[in-house]
Amino acid sequence: MLAQSKAKGISIADYNDKNFESVRPELQSTSHDIAVHTKKVDVASSSQVDAWIDEVVKQFGGIDGTVNAAGVTQRFGLRNKPNILGETNKMWDRTLGTNLAGVFYCTRAQVKGMMDLPREPRSIVNVASIASLMHGGDCFSYGVSKVGVAYLSTSVAQDVLSHNIRVNTVSHGVTKTPMISQSFGPDAAGQMDTQGFGLIQSEDVAKAIIWFLSSKSSQVAGVNLPVGPGTP
């Protein structure tokens, strides 16, 4: 969708770099002139994140907008209660290291990169989830990380708004992606229908992100936007 919105350049950073070769021609088929930059990055490493943002600024000459959608998930409703006893130190450290620390490192590096550029309207969008708004009795590290992302985004929005940088959050409902079976098992769609939550498509989330990145939301900052049926 960014390519369709006539973005001049896109940088994609991910620890899983298997799809890098396929995504480049896909983006360029949508917009022939778009510059595509890819880099393998572990967002739990602040030094790797800083190096990535430095590289982006050097290649493109600036940063207009960013999306931080790093995340690892947990399995919901599949443990014996009390669920807290099944939450290991390893789960906690890995989930918060990626989902919360990773978004913090990215946001900090992006703000720094933007501050070093001429003052112009810029936007940062951090992706949380419905877990930032609705709290259940399971998947504690995942939920805490998403609540943390929402708090971080709202706080940074207040901190940098005077520098013409907007920060917002998208908190999506259960989304149809390859990761969904990891979280809810093979009958994820059936579970969501039973509980009154419909599955949403990744395109639904992307539309909200694109809006936050665009000038159409120029007066919106510090918002945690729920996307999807069943979200508050």
TrEMBL record:
Q: Which SUPFAM superfamilies match?
A: NAD(P)-binding Rossmann-fold domains (SSF51735)
Q: Which Pfam families match?
A: adh_short_C2
InterPro entries noted in UniProt? NAD(P)-bd_dom_sf, Sc_DH/Rdtase_CS, SDR_fam
Per UniProt, which keywords does this protein have? NADP
Q: Which GO terms describe its molecular function?
A: oxidoreductase activity, acting on the CH-OH group of donors, NAD or NADP as acceptor
Family indicated by similarity: Belongs to the short-chain dehydrogenases/reductases (SDR) family.
Its recorded name reads NAD(P)-binding protein
- Which source organism does the UniProt entry give? Lepraria neglecta
